[in-house]
Amino acid sequence: MSKLDELIKTLCPDGVEYINFNSVCTYIRGITYNKGQEAKSDEHNPIKVLRANNITLSSNTLNFDDVKLVSNDVKVKENQWLYNEDILICAGSGSKEHIGKVAFIQQDMEYTFGGFMGVIRCNKSVIKPRYLFHVLTSGIFLNYLGMALNSSTINNLNNQVMNGFTIPVPPLEVQGEIVRILDNFTELTAELTAELTAELTARKKQYEYYRDTLLTFDGSVPLLKISDISHSVSSGKNKEKLQDGLYPVYGSTGVIAKTNTYQYEDEKILIARVGANAGYVHIATGKYDVSDNTLIINLKENVVMKFIYYMLVNLNLNRFAKGGGQPLVTAGQIKEIEIPIPPRAEQERIVSILDRFDALCNDISIGLPAEIEARKKQYEYYREKLLTFELKNSEVC
Fold this sequence. Notes:
Layout: H1 3-11, E1 17-20, H2 21-24, E2 25-29, E3 47-50, E4 55-56, E5 61-62, E6 68-70, E7 81-82, E8 87-90, E9 102-104, E10 109-113, E11 117-122, H3 129-136, H4 139-150, H5 159-163, E12 166-169, H6 172-214, E13 223-225, H7 226-229, E14 230-235, E15 247-251, E16 254-259, E17 268-272, E18 281-284, E19 289-290, E20 294-299, H8 305-314, H9 331-336, E21 338-340, H10 344-362, H11 367-386
Parallel strand pairs: 3-10, 15-19
Antiparallel strand pairs: 1-12, 2-11, 3-6, 4-5, 7-10, 8-9, 8-11, 13-21, 14-20, 15-16, 17-18, 17-20
Helix pairs in contact: 1-6, 6-10, 6-11
């Protein structure tokens, strides 16, 4: 039996109480200021304000990217500064997935927080702040938010929403052991993720090296224009864009809509024709249609399509985009691009090597990214398990 099992058996064998948020926590909203009170630099001792973008959603940690500065004449109450063991929470956002994200404050800070943010402070004689932090990152809180916000037209965490949340509150000794386990797990997960991320970065550099090497040829390899190796380079003509449909519609960055009719059923290289993504290269598969902001390369059979794809990606076609507000890559430009074309067997060998690297680096279902994701899922599983208790009594306190 683990230490936690022994503590639960001794201290709360009949379950734990679920207590209303406002019985054990204080909820404080952030400061308000107007556009004219924003500061451009730190010359005149401005106030530093943390906002939603300063909480990293994937790790529930603080970051200090783009910290807002405001004039020091903006009124900040004493309880609106950040203190050790505060929990900073995003209370309002244009994106619902960001509402409720939290970060734990580990020391007193000369920072305040904006009006779309809140701070939670605990009655430490009843609930440990770090325990509550883990609860607020768990499905217990996120599921509650999903129901509370879906049943309300108010898209922010006001006092009414927060006070409706009930927290499982075991004895402090049990809370402490749960915090120890989850913090250790978080630390190990962070270390492993850092190692895996470093390995992934190294693999990507290795992939880029091999890609550049494999796609660089000497003068003995003939250069052919895209017009020489293709039947045509033309724009898509899709007119029907639906939310639901039988077939995908490919646009400048991939699938952008659905349609009930398809125009193509073989793999083709697509190139974004217009906009910020002009020059982006991808491959369409299956039965599909193509929008008019995308170019379609209809290759001849004497070349390996995936080889041409890798060559075009490596050429960074975005550099050919012209125009200010709406950058444009034309079919005429694409047709004139020259590409070295080695024998077909060599094209296939290069594609085989690059496909393996590409899968290892980018496919979330295999390779290192999947391993990183598995570590996160493992932590989430144990967190939910540790924070699930028998209800002690039928009434919420």
